[in-house]
């Protein structure tokens, strides 16, 4: 009987961890990741090795973890999306086998996979990710590598929240082993800066494969914004609006949102990173929605500001038009060769003149009171993606994706007429920079106040949804 039970459990666990079927077919290919490693290697100095660590699993509450999110750099360079992993990239081929990269992965374990999901393991990393030299993480400590022979060891900042463990393939143990092997007590600034410089120079320019995913994640985010414009009403809650976005993202295959959704009504829209989304009624106020999906690792970042009742007041319209005009002015200089700082300077100038005209400020320097953030950031695998920020020396390059997001926020008790209080407006679009122009990836969602009011008159599928009262 015991033998029968053992065989039954073994058969059950084995069947449960067979290869998953019905997966999306538009993930980045192993050839893409392989090409990114080659591009990284080309930027490494002679006689160097780069070390990339996975992100740790992170606690949501007590003994429950958040859904795991891969380190974008690890994913970019390998395609590997599991925790407890190390990737080594060598500038020159190593050993008699002439390998130039090694991947250490989580060991296959049928019992654990039954509880926490499938693992690629060594064979999966070889067949699906096209690595030729792969080991289990527990083998890293015994792996014969002398880091002292390299002129440069390149790595990112160490994850500080890896859970302490004595399991041989746990990230905490892998980090400890690396530090011991490399003779490192704390991260070396020169090494981490070089890692950041290389990855930023690569990730700031999007490849054709990445652009396919970026266009999709932005497009489906626009669909969600548009649906909310049709569905929203004064009696709706911020959380319900958040849920409409999330449902549409999931409907189109997005795994998550690229950041905590910001859905702020009235005064809440004047808080730049308002994440509570817990007002039970939007009422007849402006609703600022900064929400973007994450599709196969790539994040959109789209913001629209709309009237909950479908009609802008004259004051709301006046502030909205200034932000729109600022965005239009920035678009005119979106192209290769423009200094990155010029985008914000242009937006700031338009907003300052607009606020002076309305009597909200008298000195252009006071624009910072109501427009406190910058206009643009890189977008891609992270919502605030890696890219080069070197002040006036940073020039826009073709195939960068940058946000253009001017805004005006006038909280209560501001030193202006009360009629402007609690008006918060931001319009944010995702812009692909071209040689002589730009492409607005989020153009599918209306920006003009007239077009928003027109869309608000249309009926939404969500208007007919009925649920039991509780």
From TrEMBL:
Keywords: Aminopeptidase, Hydrolase, Manganese, Metal-binding, Protease. Residues 28-164 form the Aminopeptidase P N-terminal domain. It comes from the Bacteria. Belongs to the peptidase M24B family. This is Xaa-Pro aminopeptidase. CDD domains: Prolidase. Its cofactor is Mn(2+). One of its GO terms (molecular function) is aminopeptidase activity. It catalyses: Release of any N-terminal amino acid, including proline, that is linked to proline, even from a dipeptide or tripeptide. Its EC number is 3.4.11.9. The keyword Protease applies.
